[in-house]
Amino acid sequence: MTLNNKRLFGTLCGIGAAVCYGTNPLGALNLYAEGMGTGSVLFYRFGLAWVIIAAVMLFRHESLRVTWREFGVLTTLGLLFSASSLTLYLSFRLIAAGVASTLLFTYPVMTAVIMTLFFKERVGMRTVAAIVLSLAGVVLLYWGGGDGPLNALGVVLVLLSALTYAVYIIVMSRGQLRMSSFKINFYVLIYCALGALAYALVSGQPVILPPSTKAWFYVGWLAVVPAIMALVMMVYSAKLIGSTPTAILGALEPLTAVLIGVFVFSEPFTLNLAIGIVLILSAVIIIVFRKNESR
Fold first, then answer.
1. What is the spatial distance between Cα 283 and Cα 56, in angstroms, rounded to a whole number?
2. How many CB atoms lie within 10 A of CB 285?
């Protein structure tokens, strides 16, 4: 494969990964409509994804052995990703899925702030501008619904999801895990499935089987498309075109979710929402270019 072909393939993978991640609301909202609770949806999503990953590792004859240090890092990753997924899916019940997915995309800005505060990365004007733009975008999204301000708890939940995902990315990048993405996700998905089961038990929501063929289809969709496919394509994209272009292409994720919310679930799309989305995506692009320039 030539250099140009590798870049093209990497770009297509980056686009594919972002679009796949953006389809989370498509599966979640349809399963909610089928009467499944958040715990059940996440348990089957992560459980089925884990089974598929386990089958792939068995086919590849890949060892499951890890050191105690690696086990600690994998446990941290699993708990963080589980918390991020749970808070995001809970927010889908309180605010429009497109808005929730856009608010989630503040995680690159949060990552930059955490790296500055705790790992002494230098703060430049681009970082400050990105933070201001993202906060302005959040305010517009909060007041962007056609019937008044968004549900405050829903906004808090999705911002917690963004924060835990930002920490997840930092731990992943600094954890020095020298193993395949399949092996990493094998352990992470275990914690995610167990976390969803624990939430269902604590909240008093029984874990029910998907009640119809349609429900099983969307469970499979969540396990394969925004989980496995997105993770695999993200790895290829990052390796072939680098993390910065991949992150920029990730801006298609909230846009995909917004389009699904508007055209599939008839969610309102107002001028405030449009401006808020542009401001948040502008902040993300500023952040990834700032990182690129600092290298």
1. 38
2. 16
